[in-house]
Amino acid sequence: MTRTDSNWGVLLSGKNAIRSLALAGGVALHAINVYLATTILPSVVKDIGGLDYYAWNTTLFVVASILGSALSAKLLQHAGPRRSYVIAALLFAIGTLICAAAPTMPVMLAGRFVQGFGGGFLVALSYAMIRLLFDEALWPRAMAVVSGMWGVATLVGPALGGVFAELDAWRAAFWSLVPVTALFAVLAGAMLPKQAAGGHERPALPWTQLVLLTAAVLAVSAGSVMPSLAWNIAGIVAAVVLTALLIWTESGTRQRLLPLGAFRVTAPLGALYATMALLAVTVTSSEIFVPLFLQVLHAQPPLAAGYLAALMAGGWTLGSITGSGAKGSGVGRAIRSAPLLAFTGMVVLTLLIPAGSAGDWTLLGPICVGLVVVGFGVGMSWPHLLTRVLQVAPRDEQDLASASLTTVQLFATALGAALAGMVANLAGLTEPGGVAGTANAARWLFGVFALAPALCMLTARLCARLQPRDAAGRSQLQAAE
């Protein structure tokens, strides 16, 4: 394959363009819902209550997405691309309808769970199909297109959520997603092949590991809503024990959730997964509370707060698109720079968001820069991290590697959301609450989670030294560049 075979023109023309549109559409639907829900959650809580469970809206959504992503390979195997996407869209629509009609927070959480299950299918199917539908030279740019849909979501999601929130009609925001979901199902059914070439039978699903993984996230979430510090610590300890059991189970079974080497940070896959997880935690932990902080501390209306919060995802998209074309040593530099930029942005947010303002742009301007810098740092490395997972994974575990891209990201996202809820609540978000409690919660939240990109600087150095499989099919670490 020649160098020109990996350019944007090849990916965005002919049959590849149709395939790209279908795959990107599934992620866009999921991502738009994420920002729509984040924008309207303050209005939802004001209407039906449940501030203590604010972070659970994200946690349960992502936990369900993990389950959907883990099941996506089986769904794709038995139903084929076309029907798989239609089934995923149907589940997403059902969850959306439940959210729109929710009279209480428990019902809302049930709807978010069903939504997340369908959304997990949509995202995981998109990543899995990249390996099946495109040549390897196109993988980084295809990953960038799929990841770039979060940028589209930053325009559409906050707009829908903010407008409906300001009209005091948050339920209509969910209703508006239903016809869009139906349209996507029709388009996916028309564009995608009925069967994917190159599929083969996979072993039974690793149900034990999935249960342990879900329980670990829920343990932290349960502890986060308790007023007692002892219960908070108990939730974290339970999560650590459950995660240790998951790792032990993975090491002694053929029905694995992740490829070999996933839990050893010194191994190629372990370093990649650790870097992905730390970067995902950095973004999620801060992003879900930014609209609330901006409304309470910086006098921003829901629409403006939603758009400003989405700047982090906008930076992610900009970084993904501009960084996806890096080659050779440029890939290593992009991966090493990601945590440094993310850490810098988190420091800015730690200092400025808790300070509060009356909407003065002398503070809001630097806050916006901080949000963009965090997202840009993560985005510039993301397509290369995902591509390297597929490149260094054993050849007989490519299906596991494809599914793991979503599983690892979503697990880190769910855990980050749960821990963020715990930190915010302990720091005073609900007690004493108000401006003072919210400011203290913001200070602790960004300060604590700035540790994630700081740790990521170590794992990113290992990832930057990775190279794809050699002629014998083995992945390697190369000398530092």
What is the CATH class designation? Mainly Alpha
In the CATH classification, which architecture applies? Up-down Bundle
Number of strands: 2
Strand content: under 5%
Global Rg: 21 Å
CATH topology: Growth Hormone, Chain: A
What's the overall geometry?
globular
What does this structure look like?
The protein has 481 residues and is an all-alpha fold. The chain has a single domain, classed as Up-down Bundle (Growth Hormone, Chain: A), CATH 1.20.1250. The chain is 77% helix and 1% strand. It is built from 18 helices and two strands.
Write the layout of secondary structure elements.
Elements: H1 8-11, H2 14-48, H3 56-101, H4 105-133, H5 139-166, H6 170-175, H7 177-191, H8 207-224, H9 229-251, H10 268-287, H11 290-297, H12 302-309, H13 311-323, H14 329-352, H15 361-392, H16 398-426, H17 434-449, H18 451-464, E1 466-467, E2 476-477
Antiparallel strand pairs: 1-2
Helix pairs in contact: 2-4, 2-5, 2-7, 2-12, 3-4, 3-7, 3-8, 3-16, 4-5, 4-16, 5-12, 5-13, 5-15, 8-9, 8-16, 10-15, 10-16, 10-18, 11-12, 13-15, 14-15, 14-17, 14-18, 16-17
